[in-house]
Design brief:
The structure holds two protein chains of two kinds. By secondary structure, chain A is of the alpha+beta class. Helices cover 54% and strands 16% of the residues of chain A. The relative contact order of chain A is 0.05. The chains are: A alpha+beta, B alpha/beta.
């Protein structure tokens, strides 16, 4: 009863009793037990010393025995409880030092609290385990293993993924420098060992790429990072390391390097080809053409109508072949020498018009250029060639029955400019709108309109290279509209001069 | 007028067709020229140094040098001529099919006197040869 009363405020309230209250309770209880025993002894003494046996009252005996029994049974209970506590404590682990003796915790409160603490620890453990599982999952997904080591005690832990990366099974080996170094490829072992040694001795952070050989003989490429922290005295105390398997990344990087090398090589080959084409292919062509002319000169007068026609075919073939080679070269050279810089679009158009002066006069053409053309970023020479081709086409494919009209228009379309070259010529049928940009693509017989079919291919290549797009715009009525977009800024901003 | 009546021209050209065109152009020229034709760089150096059967070779007043030659190319021949102190003063005109920027730059860097791209048709070719002659044998002063 008394015990219940004494325990009640602590346990039911669910709060931890303060040490001072605990001592007061324990002392109060002890003194109550001692007082009961004392009272019992005194009552028994009174009964036994009663002078007259006949008068001896049974009441005194009872008054003595009851408190004695209560006091003794309470002490016995305390002693038994203490032993049970110790047994239980021995099962769970080392007993808390403060509760070593029964009198330090006569009510078993400490033991109860220790039990609570144990439960608390158990749930903590569970939370930690779940946390570890989550971390381990994350490591597996990231293919990154982690390890830590207390440099003072030498105790270390490797994560599951750390084991997996090395090709080891968790629990089958004791994490140590030696086991780790064992896994490293003999060619890289000395270097990694030196990094480990130096970092563990001086602290700090290091990174390195190295190879390992898994137990099954597979060689993998790893990226390792080690971070050694020091205590206040500058003594290295704790090592944290991460490992990442970069075999796949390295393989892709090597593949990319190979591709880039291949691209360079093929570019160089292309340049070589362009050179050979310009020199070696045109050389015999020139000789053929020249000697046909000389023959014509010598045989002038003695040649009949058909022979003259044949001569004409030969000369024409040579001239066409030469233009094809020249145009093909021009096409292959777009973007080979990049001289991108801000330039005034108006000047490029003017330069193209100056080059086309003869054609403009021949076609009796009127060319209008929108005023206030912007400053663009790109290769000015290529822009000139672009307009040379577009305006040249507009002049070439004119209607024979009326003077040519060509206009160059410009429109601000947000982060790019939109240009249009419009004419009143023969136009481009919608079904050919895509085809006209193909190389060597021609839409007309050679005796109708001259050309190699490279001009618009060059134009498209120039626009593409500058990040723009070009298309034939559908048009009501006669003529063709070629529209292209040109980005306002360079793809990587450069300071304007 | 020039100080000499007859001018010696050394043509280094492996293509007989082109060599023929030069010969025809010179035949129609108003200058009196003697054309000496060699087919590669090795023979050109023998001619210039009067070795190996070229003992009687005159010192040319002008060298017309093709770039695309069998064996050593025109650039290498030019370099060798300019490195030879006895030959360095002879004007060398590069006569090539190539209009490539790098060929032109390299030729001038190596000391070419001028660079002429062979024109496509025969009239223009003849005119080019005549203008070379007119300049070097008419306008320019040559070392005697």
């Amino acid at each position: 009863m008394g015990l219940a009363v004494l325990r009640a405020p602590d346990v039911t309230a669910g709060t931890m009793p303060k040490p001072r209250e605990r001592i007061a309770a324990r002392l109060g209880l002890l003194f109550a037990a001692l007082a009961a025993i004392l009272i019992g002894i005194m009552a028994v003494a009174v009964w036994s010393l009663w002078p007259d046996d006949a008068d001896r009252s049974l009441g005194w005996l009872l008054a003595g025995l009851v408190p004695l029994l209560v006091g003794l049974s309470f002490l016995a209970g305390l002693a038994i409880g203490q032993r049970v506590d110790r047994r239980l404590a021995a099962l769970d682990g080392p007993p808390p030092p403060a509760a070593a003796e029964w009198w330090s915790d006569p009510l078993g409160l400490d033991a109860a609290l220790a039990g609570l603490a144990r439960q608390f620890n158990l749930s903590l453990c569970e939370v930690e385990q779940r946390g570890r599982a989550l971390v381990s999952n994350a490591e597996r997904v990231a293919q990154m293993g982690s390890a830590e080591r207390d440099l003072l005690t030498g105790a270390g832990r490797w994560s599951d993924e750390f084991h997996a990366i090395l090709g080891l099974v968790p629990g089958k080996c004791a994490p140590s420098h030696a086991v780790f170094l064992e896994a490293i490829h003999p060619g890289d072992r000395a270097e990694v060992a030196e990094i480990l040694r130096a970092t563990c001795a001086e602290g700090g952070r290091r990174e390195d790429d190295f190879r390992i050989v898994r137990p099954d003989g597979e060689v993998r490429m790893l990226h390792g990072r080690i971070d050694v922290s020091c205590d206040a005295a500058g003594r290295p105390v704790r090592l944290e390391a991460t490992l990442q398997d970069i075999t796949e990344r390295k393989r892709l990087e090597n593949e990319l390097d190979g591709l880039i090398r291949e691209l360079w090589r093929s570019n160089e080959e292309l340049e070589q080809f362009a050179y050979v084409a310009s020199h070696d292919l045109r050389q015999p062509l020139r000789v053929v053409g020249s000697y046909v002319s000389l023959l014509e000169e010598e045989l002038m007068g003695s040649l009949g109508g058909e022979s003259l026609e044949y001569m004409g075919f030969v000369r024409d073939g040579v001239r066409r072949m030469d233009r094809l080679i020249t145009d093909l070269l021009a096409y292959s050279r777009v973007g080979r020498v990049i001289g991108d810089a801000p330039f005034a679009m108006g000047e490029a158009v003017e330069a193209a018009l100056a080059d086309l002066q003869i054609e403009i006069e021949d076609a009796d053409a009127r060319v209008t250029v929108a005023p206030g053309l912007p400053t663009l970023y790109g290769d000015r020479g290529e822009m000139e060639r672009l307009f040379l081709n577009l305006i040249g086409n507009a002049l070439k494919y004119r209607r024979p029955d009326q003077p040519a009209q060509v206009s160059v228009e410009c429109e601000d379309a947000g982060d790019e400019w939109l240009f249009r070259v419009c004419d009143n010529g023969i136009g481009i049928a919608p079904e050919h709108a895509e085809r006209v940009f193909g190389i060597f693509q021609r839409l007309h017989a050679r005796d109708e309109y001259e050309g190699t079919g490279v001009g618009l291919a060059i134009v498209k290549k120039i626009v593409d290279r500058h990040g723009g797009t070009i298309r034939v715009e559908p048009r009501e009525g006669p003529g063709a509209v070629l529209a292209f977009n040109w980005p306002k800024g360079p793809r990587q901003p450069e300071p304007e001069s | 007028m020039a100080s000499k009546d007859i001018h010696d021209i050394l043509l280094v050209e492996d293509d007989p067709g082109d060599a023929g065109l030069v010969r025809i152009a010179l035949r129609r020229s108003r200058h009196v020229c003697r054309l000496h034709h060699v087919k590669d760089g090795g023979e050109a150096m023998e001619f210039l140094r009067r070795t190996d059967g070229h003992g009687q070779a005159p010192r040319p007043d002008l060298i017309l040098l093709d770039l695309n030659l069998p064996g050593r190319n025109g650039h290498e021949i030019l370099e060798e001529i300019r490195a030879d102190t006895t030959l360095a003063s002879i004007p060398v005109v590069i006569l090539s099919t190539s209009g490539a920027e790098r060929d032109i730059k390299k030729a001038y860097a190596l000391g070419a006197s001028s660079y002429v791209s062979k024109p496509m048709d025969v009239e223009a070719f003849t005119a080019a040869i005549h203008s070379i002659e007119d300049f070097w044998f008419g306008t320019a002063q040559l070392p005697s």
